[in-house]
Write a structure and sequence with these properties.
Elements lengths: L3 E7 L3 H10 L3 H5 L1 E4 L11 H5 L24 E3 L14 H19 L2 E2 L4 H12 L4 E2 L4 E3 L2 H18 L2 E3 L2 E8 L6 E7 L2 E12 L10 H5 L5 E12 L15 E3 L2 E7 L3 E7 L2 E7 L8 E10 L2 H15 L4 E4 H6 L15 E2 L8 H18 L8 E11 L8 E3 L2 E3 L10 H17 L1
Parallel strand pairs: 1-2, 1-10, 2-7, 10-21, 17-18
Antiparallel strand pairs: 3-6, 4-6, 5-12, 8-9, 9-10, 11-16, 11-19, 12-13, 13-16, 14-15, 17-19, 20-21
Helix pairs in contact: 1-11, 4-11
InterPro entries: FAD/NAD-bd_sf (IPR036188)
Length: 440
């Protein structure tokens, strides 16, 4: 009979790596654990969209796949508690969660030289009052910036360290099917690699595939169909000077109003894209050691209307060929295609009317949010803002046990849980889950 592995990890982004680090602290666990990553193992992640301003439409997008996952190219910072507060339900107390987050921050500081964004306490208090007067929720948390190259080097060194210790990590290996064996003693995991297809037998399966791939259906193969929620929206971008000193109140300004919120501010950064299912979606990327002169942030609206989102994706394929759309804010508001040249860091975006791409009710909420928060509260002039769409986040509605177990011996960690996102939070969930499983 083929070998049965005790643990299998699908996805080697921050969550999967955190899981491996805590679970494989003993030689016995290393020997009985196997890991799969759809993308490749390489010293540098290169994306043609960054170099040639157009996507190569590879079956495996290098932005959201590969060892380290999307964390190696997006963001450029991590956020401490209360960011990702959904993690609390997997801990005995809020204090226990904070202790592990701080433990990981200290660990990462020694590896990638985290730089804490210092904000004066009076500024924080004044900002809180300023936004509350406008019924806008402002939540402060500590933010740490890092050099992207240092982070990628850390990922490479960590993976290499795993391999030296004997951990089996299969890159360029996509898990295409998962079935529970009739004996119910293990899972049969089908993997497509460059050398062909193989089936592995695994007792405890850990899913750490993130929340950006709209084609990811591995959870549905193990459990009943999952009802998803979504966050859908746009990236707004303007010259960094247009933001004045508004970003000095927070290292990663997140503001909430109604069903809308800001997300992933990239000061002096750029808009980047990733491909899933033949369509392009957006993220933000920044490096504190490189400046573009532009700042962007996402405006996201939460939606539970699965049919509306499915129809939006179909429309995106049919009418825009799955290519991101750019438009001046004043034209987006007025429902007309921009005639003037549009400056944006995502030069591959095409001109068009975002009103015809996104659902009408989403457009209405986005416009109101921009008017109240971006223009009204933050004081950014409409005339200098460019809108680029679409940005889409999947929020799975999963009922997980305190040890991240979704179904018997099937665990979900990281952003795939739908309960939190972020490099630090995903890494923390992997470490926590690994420690819990190691005790059993």
């Amino acid at each position: 009979m083929p070998e049965i592995f005790e643990f299998g990890i699908i996805g080697m982004g921050p969550a999967g790596i955190g899981m491996a680090m805590s679970l494989c602290s003993t030689s016995n666990n290393i020997k009985n654990t196997i890991c799969f990553e759809r993308g490749s193992y390489s010293d540098e992640k290169i994306c043609s969209a960054f170099l040639q301003n157009e996507c190569c439409y590879s079956n495996v997008c290098t932005v959201i796949s590969g060892l380290g996952g999307a964390s190696t190219l997006s963001s450029g910072k991590i956020s401490n508690f209360p960011a990702g507060s959904g993690l609390v339900e997997f801990f005995d107390s809020e204090q226990q969660l904070k202790e592990l987050l701080n433990e990981i921050i200290l660990f990462l500081s020694n590896k990638i030289a985290l730089k804490k964004v210092e904000i004066d306490s009076i500024i924080k208090k004044d900002a809180q009052k300023f936004y509350e007067q406008r019924q806008i929720e402002y939540k402060y948390y500590d933010v740490y910036e890092f050099d992207g190259k240092n982070y990628r080097d850390f990922i490479q060194e960590t993976i290499q360290g795993f391999r030296v210790k004997g951990l089996q990590i299969f890159d360029n290996s996509e898990v295409t099917d998962v079935k529970r064996d009739p004996s119910a003693l293990y899972f049969r995991v089908k993997v497509k690699a460059l050398s062909g297809e193989r089936v592995f037998l695994i007792r405890n399966l850990i899913l750490a595939t993130g929340a950006l791939d709209i084609q990811d259906r591995l959870i549905e193969k193990v459990t009943d169909s999952i009802k998803n929620s979504y966050e859908i929206g746009v990236r707004i971008e303007a010259p960094a000077s247009a933001f004045g000193n508004i970003l000095s109140t927070h290292g990663d300004l997140k503001l909430k109003l109604g069903s809308g919120r800001t997300y992933c501010v990239t000061a002096n950064g750029k808009i980047i894209s990733y491909q899933t299912g033949g369509a392009i979606f957006l993220e933000g990327s920044m490096d504190p050691f490189e400046t573009t002169g532009y700042t962007n942030l996402a405006v996201l609206i939460k939606s539970n209307n699965d049919n509306e989102i499915r129809n939006f994706i179909k429309r995106y394929y049919a009418e825009f060929r799955g290519l991101p759309v750019k438009q001046r804010l004043v034209d987006y508001i007025n429902g007309q295609i921009s005639r003037e040249a549009i400056n944006t860091t995502l030069t591959s975006a095409i001109g068009g009317d975002i009103n015809t791409l996104l659902p009408t009710f989403i457009n209405d909420i986005i416009k109101d949010f921009i008017d109240d928060v971006i223009v009204g509260a933050m004081g950014i002039s409409k005339d200098v803002v460019v809108v680029v769409a679409p940005e889409l986040k999947i929020l799975r509605n999963l009922q997980l046990a305190e040890n991240f177990e979704l179904d018997r011996n099937f665990f979900v960690i990281g952003a795939a849980t739908g309960k939190f996102r972020g490099i630090l939070q995903s890494f923390c969930s992997g470490v926590r889950c690994g420690r819990l499983l190691d005790r059993e």
